[in-house]
Specification:
single chain; 248 residues; alpha/beta; Metallo-beta-lactamase, Chain A; 7-stranded mixed β-sheet; 7 helices
């Protein structure tokens, strides 16, 4: 499994980082978790064919995590007509809104059997011959809308946990499955709580490595490489830049 951080910024535009988007590659197949702008351009510049994408997962609908999806879905709809993938958005209302947006942009869906929209449900959400994805409800959104974290398990291979954005201040909704079930890596946001809180939540996780991304202004020193002295950690810790890739 190879993970690439296409965008690592927080919710406010940055001069040096794009919005949140994570690409996972397993045996030539591509999966996206979130699609902040400009995900379609970033895939194209990396030479990643849209036809290699098999599934897309949104953690929640905030624009810094989904702002690049309309163009990506539109291009897949009317131009790259040999694309074929599943799209998971947090709720039925989000699916309906994205369909309506494609209708406004393109005049409708070219082939709904080729671009398949689904609302997310907790539990095992998606499975193919390469990857199984399980969804866990989180409490990031400040209203009744939904948000999710994902556990991605490659067939016979590594396991990646992605928190998405968590509850403000305390990360109290960090999934128990991430904390108690072994994994090879955890991708944890750091925009909505302190790094001390993040490390406290992550400390018991049976994982080999942790990636801090989506780093907010309160933890800006981490982006600049000014990482404070840390206690001994049971995992290796990384703070990736846009475009950084890792094999796990």
């Amino acid at each position: 499994m190879k993970i690439t951080f296409l965008g690592t910024s927080h919710g406010v535009p940055s001069a040096v980082r794009y919005s949140s988007s994570l690409m996972i590659e397993v045996d030539g197949s591509v999966y996206l978790v979130d699609g902040g702008a400009p995900v379609a351009d970033l895939l194209t510049r990396r030479g990643v064919p849209f036809t290699s994408v098999r599934a897309v997962f949104a953690t929640h609908m905030h624009s810094d995590h989904t702002g690049g999806f309309p163009l990506f879905f539109s291009l897949s709809n009317w131009y790259y007509k040999d694309t074929d993938y599943d799209i998971f958005l947090p709720d039925t209302v989000d699916v309906d809104a994205m369909r309506a947006l494609l209708c406004a942009m393109d005049g409708g869906m070219d082939n709904e059997a080729r671009l398949r929209f689904h609302p997310v449900r907790e539990g095992v959400l998606y499975s193919d011959d390469r990857l199984t994805v399980t969804a866990y409800r989180t409490r990031h959104m400040m209203d009744d809308r939904t948000s999710y974290a994902y556990r991605l398990e490659a067939a016979g291979g590594p396991t990646l946990c992605v928190t998405g954005d968590l509850h403000h201040g305390d990360a109290a909704d960090f999934p128990d499955a991430f904390r108690y079930e072994p994994s090879d890596a955890v991708v944890c946001e750091m925009a909505h709580f302190s790094w001390e809180t993040a490390l406290g939540v992550l400390a018991p996780c049976p994982t080999r490595q942790v990636f801090f991304t989506h780093i907010g202004p309160g933890n800006a020193d981490w982006i600049e490489g000014k990482i404070p002295p840390l206690p001994p950690l049971p995992f290796s810790l990384h703070v990736p830049d846009d475009g950084d890739s890792f094999e796990i």
